[in-house]
């Protein structure tokens, strides 16, 4: 293992799948929710750049899908270039992924992006050719495998596998797509196998496409390839807080890695069974652990409670709705119809009173009691 900040090491901040320009128009997001989700992708990109600057990284590598699509607003392209320009290292290397694949028209995404660049510090890795640099006395060679379409049943790393390599140089492959066994099933996402990646003899593989980091946590050994993961969560299927990799590699090919948290929003899918006051209190306790202003929560509630507890729960939910940034609730908590309830709400001796009492005598009749009570309530109206 390499000690962090060894003098002669190459320092890289690695991100991918930033999906700038994603609109978040699904679900029940209000315009203000959408705005915050959109804005967070820019702010998190700034955090990636800052993390690289703090660690004096030489390179910022974006392994594809910096943009959501080829049809991103010009103002979003400009804002992205402005953020990347804040990187203080040697170069920013941007690989076109499958969402933002490379096509050469001057008024397309990449034509517009390139027209905004004031110097050659930001490089769009659009060609299948090596890029050589000299850093701290080390020769570093990047081997990019850009996407030229949204889908492909074949990957684009063959040229890297076949290329002649200088084994004295630090060789770094950059690609976007599935590694078989890790990502989405199917064969349309530039699938690569671990064997193919290994056969290219790269010292580092910096990949994008899968929104989950690989390895999951920092380790001492070279994992064979890295997935940066998305830099900030983008939906309820995202279980991490958004991250990037900071990686150092030296002449001897020893590596040091650090997982950097770059997101500030978290998506949570939670479910609770609530049957009494104590259950509600422990539900409140769990909810209090979340950062309310940075949380998007999908909540499922079930159980059966007394009238008083239902009123209490209603107050609790009302408070949560005010505090939590985004809250979606599926509330299936039913009223518990027990003897106390029947005695309070029905006159003794009436037919409904007798019916409900008979049903409540047997605990197996919970559902029948609910239905009977609902029917009686409806008949009252
Ligand atoms: Mn992708």
Automatic annotation (TrEMBL):
InterPro entries: Calcineurin-like_PHP, DNA_Repair-Maintenance_Comp, Metallo-depent_PP-like, Mre11_N. Keywords: Exonuclease, Hydrolase, Nuclease. It is an enzyme of class 3 (hydrolase). Its EC number is 3.1.-.-. It holds the Pfam family Metallophos. The keyword Hydrolase applies. One of its GO terms (molecular function) is exonuclease activity. Residues 10-213 form the Calcineurin-like phosphoesterase domain. PANTHER family: COMPONENT OF ATP-DEPENDENT DSDNA EXONUCLEASE (PTHR30337). This is DNA repair exonuclease.
């Amino acid at each position: 293992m390499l000690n962090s900040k060894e003098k002669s090491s190459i320092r890289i901040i690695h991100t991918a799948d930033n999906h700038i320009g994603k609109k978040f128009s699904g679900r029940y997001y209000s315009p203000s929710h959408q705005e915050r989700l959109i804005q967070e992708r820019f702010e998190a990109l700034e955090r990636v750049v800052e993390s690289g600057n703090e660690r004096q990284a030489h390179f910022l590598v974006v392994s594809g899908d910096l943009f959501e699509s080829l049809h991103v607003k010009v103002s979003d392209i400009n804002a992205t270039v402005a953020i990347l320009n804040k990187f203080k290292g040697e170069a920013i290397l941007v690989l076109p992924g499958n969402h933002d694949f490379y096509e050469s028209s001057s008024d397309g995404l990449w034509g517009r992006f390139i027209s905004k660049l004031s110097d050659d510090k930001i490089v769009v890795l659009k060609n299948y050719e090596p890029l050589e640099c000299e850093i701290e006395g080390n020769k570093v060679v990047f081997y990019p495998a850009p996407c030229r379409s949204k889908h492909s049943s074949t990957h684009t790393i063959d040229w890297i596998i076949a290329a002649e390599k200088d084994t004295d140089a630090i060789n770094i492959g950059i690609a976007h797509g599935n590694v078989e066994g890790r990502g989405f099933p199917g064969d349309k996402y530039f699938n690569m196998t671990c064997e193919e990646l290994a056969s290219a003899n790269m010292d580092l593989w910096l990949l994008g496409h899968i929104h989950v980091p690989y390895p999951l946590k920092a380790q001492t050994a070279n994992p064979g390839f890295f997935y940066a993961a998305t830099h900030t969560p983008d939906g309820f299927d995202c279980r991490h807080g958004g991250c990037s990799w900071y990686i150092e590699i030296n002449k001897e090919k020893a590596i040091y890695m650090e997982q950097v948290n770059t997101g500030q929003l978290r998506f949570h899918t939670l479910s609770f069974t609530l049957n009494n006051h104590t259950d509600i209190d422990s539900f409140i306790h769990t909810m209090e652990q979340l950062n309310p202003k940075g949380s998007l929560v999908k909540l499922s509630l079930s159980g059966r409670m007394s009238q008083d507890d239902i009123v209490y729960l209603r107050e609790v939910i009302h408070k949560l709705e005010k505090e939590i940034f985004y809250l979606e609730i599926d509330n299936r908590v039913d009223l518990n119809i027990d003897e106390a309830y029947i005695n309070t709400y029905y006159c003794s001796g009436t037919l409904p009173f007798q019916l409900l009492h008979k049903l409540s005598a047997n605990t197996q009749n919970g559902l029948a009691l609910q239905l009977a009570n609902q029917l009686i309530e409806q008949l009252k109206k």
